[in-house]
Amino acid sequence: MRFSRIKGDGPQNIVRLPRLGKIRLGIKATSEKSGKEYPKETSYFVCPPEVQAKFGPKPERLPVMLATENDEQNYRQYYAVYGGNQRLKCQGDGETAERRNEKGEIEKMECPTPEHCEYAKANVCRARFDLMVVLPDVSVGGVYQLSSGSINTDIDIRSGIEMARSLYGRISWVPMEIVREARKMPEPGTTKMNTHYPVKLLPIGSLEVVMSVRKDPMLIPTGETAKYLLPEPVIEGPEVDTPTELIEDDAPKEAANKTPKPEAPALTQAQNQALDMMAYLEGAESVSALENIWKSLLPKIAKLSGPERVDVQKAHDKRVTALKQNRS
Questions:
Q1: Distance CA 21, CA 16 (A)
Q2: What is the C-alpha to C-alpha distance for residues 230 and 213, in angstroms, rounded to an integer?
Q3: Residue 194 CB neighbour total at 10 angstroms
């Protein structure tokens, strides 16, 4: 007897796409004077060499595609607490969590969300997001990982996925791009507005292309993408290939002799989330865009405490008034 293939939909027939690398949103900066290392946000995507060879050393836009219709494989969301050396201590989804105890064993427990968890408050728990994309102009044989903790990035990526689904009737192997875009945001613990560069995921293509794909789905791969199994995103442990840049300290020498100003009290996670939402509302350029943003934020707003929820509502109403005045 001779057989060559196992029949059915078991793991023997899964097509696994490898993780080819990571697209970063910053670098490691090292102080020339102190030698201390710290993360530094960039205005461009920090890419592996093969991506830089195609798009240059500092691309601000990259054409991408999603490899599957499976939302949970394309885009992961979770709460995470990290310890030294980027070691994951606790991870959860707002209902269930897995936490590493003192013996190094993993324990399952309820996850009440960071706002209602004493462990989260004591250990700085934050929401994290991992996007897995194909760079079709580089390789269609695997995916690249992009990770962020920005609520604005989270909203814009999920919005882009839903927009692609609405336009094309699907999300896998349709043309999209990721974009770094400057935006003024309030800095936690201060009254300053600083420029940051969240990521947007945008479906692209003319109306003619969209209609052609909807009319003839065979222009792009079909249900075969259901077999694709994407790799798990790397969420733990240091990645030694992160670029490091030596930064020359530009603080004046006499500043060392001045009495340092007292630090502003640390903001709670709820206050930081409210500030992010307010900045996102402030970036809306039309009333309709503002209302779409407001609807997408409602589940998160509902979890805020009273004062923060009121502040976000006031920011929304203020932006509505400003947009209507500009229109008139």
A1: 15
A2: 24
A3: 11
The residue type found at 173 is W
pLDDT, position 178: 96
Q: What is the 8-class DSSP label of residue 41?
A: E
Please say whether the beta carbons of 244 and 30 come within 8 A. yes
Name the residue type at position 10: G
Beta strands 244-247 and 19-31 are parallel
Alpha helices in 199-249 (DSSP H): 207-215
What the block records as the tokens of 34 is 């102190």
Residues contacting residue 165 through CB under 8 Å, at least 6 positions apart:
171
Token pair for residue 106?
A: 């993993």
What the block records as the tokens of 130 is 């991992």
Stated pTM of the model: 0.72
* Contact present, 61 and 177 (Cβ < 8 Å): yes
CA distances from 36 to 30, 40, 106, 248 (A): 5, 12, 33, 12
Predicted local confidence at residue 258, as pLDDT: 46
Query: Which residues does the chain have with pLDDT short of 70?
Result: 9, 11, 187-191, 217-227, 238-269, 327-328
Q: pLDDT by residue (tens digit) across 96-138?
A: 999 998 888 899 999 998 888 999 988 889 899 999 999 999 9
C-alpha pair distances (Å), 138 with each of 70, 233, 239: 22, 20, 22
